Amino acid sequence: MKSLLQAVQLIKFLSHFRKKAYFTVSFQNLKLTFMRKLSMLLMCLLVIISSFATTLATKPPLKASEIFLPVGKTGKMISLLDLSTIQIKDFQELTGEKIEFFDRIAIKNAQRKLRDNINYDGSFNSKRIEKVLKKRGDGEGFQAGGFFLGFLLGLIGVLITYLINDDQKRNRVKWAWIGFAIWIGILGVLLATGGYGI
After folding, report:
1. Is 157 inside a domain boundary?
2. Rounded to whole angstroms, how far apart are CA atoms 84 and 114?
3. Tell me, what's the pLDDT at 177?
4. Can you give the pTM of this predicted structure?
């Protein structure tokens, strides 16, 4: 009986201990373990995310040997690199015109400025020249997006093209105005011929 009483007291003691201390210690231990795992997970994610470096693809710089200009009335083309080093006599032969004294001085000064803006590898060292050449290249050709914005949406489409800022803005705005003008022309023709229900 004495051993039974001791067993009951031991069970009560253990149950009392388990209710208060063990669960408290276990909960705190569980909480610490969870926090450790969470912090390790966050650190691993941070390392993984930072290891994927993002690089922006940059366009190669414009080369003076790749940009051609028409010379004279014959339609012959010359690169900017060749233009910066060409002799006056060769330039006269290329254009087919006689160059006067003051024009020769102006050409020599322009060649010197052009040579100063070209690096040894043939690229431009002046952002201003690159910007001018990019604008010059974007002004050519049909821009479908601008045309259809102006043609289908009218004046609202033209206003939308002014809100879009990118390298082709100038060309897009030009074609939006052209599309809008065609839209006005078609509307005028329809109204003048009876309108077909308009």
Report:
1. yes
2. 6
3. 93
4. 0.40
Asked if residue 59 is part of any domain, the answer here is: no
Per-residue pLDDT, 22: 47
Q: Answer for the pair 170, 138: CB distance below 8 angstroms, yes or no.
A: yes
d(CA 154, CA 187): 11
Give every CB contact of residue 144 below 8 A, 6+ residues apart in sequence.
175
Q: How many domains does the chain have?
A: 3
Q: How far apart are CA 98 and CA 109, in angstroms?
A: 18
Which domain range does residue 93 map to?
64-137
pLDDT tens, position by position, 60-81: 777 777 878 778 777 788 888 8
C-alpha 153/C-alpha 80 separation (Å) is 41
CA distance 192 to 126: 54
